[in-house]
Amino acid sequence: MSEEIKLILTVNSVIDNLSDVGLPEGDPEINIFTTDGALRVIEGGYLITFSEEQDGGTAHTSLYVYEGAVRLIKSGAITSEMHFAEGEVYNTLYCVGPYSFDMTVRTKRIRNTVSEDGGELQLIYTMNVGGQEKNVRMKISSKRK
What we know:
By secondary structure, this protein is mainly beta. It has strands at 5-16, 29-42, 45-54, 57-66, 69-76, 78-84, 89-96, 99-112, 118-129, 132-144. It has a ten-stranded antiparallel beta barrel. A hairpin with a 2-residue loop joins strand 4 (57-66) and strand 5 (69-76). It is globular and about 40 Å long.
């Protein structure tokens, strides 16, 4: 495996259409955090790893970034695997603690400038978790530490 490159990551996600869970239509859920991470060159792309604190503990994220596709795997406090490719639909489970929910992800757009020097990954997609559809915009910016 290639050498690990240490990164500083800023993760910015915005989730819209939350009226079904008690927030008024138009009030997005915004989550922004900065964390240490790592990047490795893998066959056909990059692997970015980082962790974040959740209500139920720590969630570990592995992002496999390829030209035109991304695979996101979460473990720990949240367990999930999502695949992103423009125009494609992916069905999976989203697990938080003892609860599991069916989840469908429909990728609208991927923008990727990730390199060994840093860069940015943007994902725009809809997800339907437990029957509630949400629009998600996620941007992960990285730079060498």
